[in-house]
Amino acid sequence: MSADFIARLIGMVVFALLGVYGGSWLGRDLGEQQMIYIFVVGLIGVLFGLVMTPYLTTRPVRALHAVLGKQSAGTLFSGLIGLLAGLVFAALLAFPLSLLPSPVGEVLPFVGVLIFGYFGVALFVMRQNDIANLLGVVTSQREGAAPNWSQSNRTILLDTSVIIDGRVADIAKTGFLPGTLLIPRFVLNELQYVADSPDSLRRARGRRGMEVLSELQKASAVVVRISDIDVEGVREVDDKLVILARQMKCPILTNDYNLNRIAELQGVPILNINELANAVKSVVLPGEVFSVNVIQEGKEANQGVGYLEDGTMVVVENGNKYLNREVNVTVTKVLQTAAGRMIFARPES
User: What sections of the chain are H helices per DSSP?
Assistant: First the structure.
């Protein structure tokens, strides 16, 4: 039996008893007609309990559970500490406020509890990152150890595409991703769905993602946390990530172009691994000389194509006669495109 059905039965009995009591009180001076009042009001109590009990019991509990389920553990902890701090402050002011003339002295202590409780929760939730960082530094100093900046309070949401891509594990091991890498359960479910796909390519990509997660969890330079936090009423994983990032005020780590654009339009910060890869590629200027292995012909006549160690394409003029050979080239032009950086060069004479 569902919780709603049980609540309806209990509510029906309780409100029926209240209706019988109310009917007997209303018809106490009517003699034999008192039974009519007891029957009618009792029946109204039965109907009211049968219909309205879920809206007074289980529905508010579910709504509260849904709201709390959207919040991170840090937000809930900060809100609890803020509530306690507000109640302590209100308790300190309750005695002097109670000495004021009636009825002000009777009302103000209760109003103070509501006001200071609310402002305590709001203040601590708003500054939860600063408070967590301060507590982390104090704890590290008390233990006699230097603060571990790689495990600061910053939270980064991981997208399915960046897990499958695999480069996030290598980046995390270098320590360039300080904070906690948060993987929501719905992202893990999507990754499992890809790993169980009947398509062999998608299945291999999904299993590769599982291996990357295992590497991340074993890496000591990064903290990985899998959370059951979810977004109600939304089915698409990308939409859930954007909403969750806005609620938690944290960036999304991805290499998905569409998610990148949607998040930017909604003011959500994005950490794009493709942009990072382009940013750390070697910088060359026209006139510089380096060696490259020409591995294939280019699209234009007499062109040869090679690649640097970081994957940058090098187009060599008159390079088709140097196929499968190492040749020294001089840079003539560097072109930045949406796909990355391209270098045009010519063989040294």
Answer: 3-26, 34-56, 58-69, 73-98, 104-126, 128-142, 160-165, 167-173, 185-195, 200-218, 237-248, 257-265, 273-279
Q: For residue 185, report the phi and psi dihedrals to the nearest 5 degrees.
A: -60, -35
- Interval 74-87: pLDDT, tens: 778 888 899 999 99
Domains and CATH numbers, the chain: 3-62 (no CATH), 77-143 (no CATH), 149-279 (3.40.50.1010), 289-347 (2.40.50.110)
Please report, in angstroms and rounded to a whole number, the separation of the first and last CA atoms in the chain: 86
d(CA 186, CA 229): 9
Distance CA 19, CA 48 (A): 10
347 prior amide bond cis, ω within 30:
no
For 6-34, how does the pLDDT look when each residue is reduced to its tens digit (9 = 90+)? 888 888 888 888 888 888 888 777 766 77
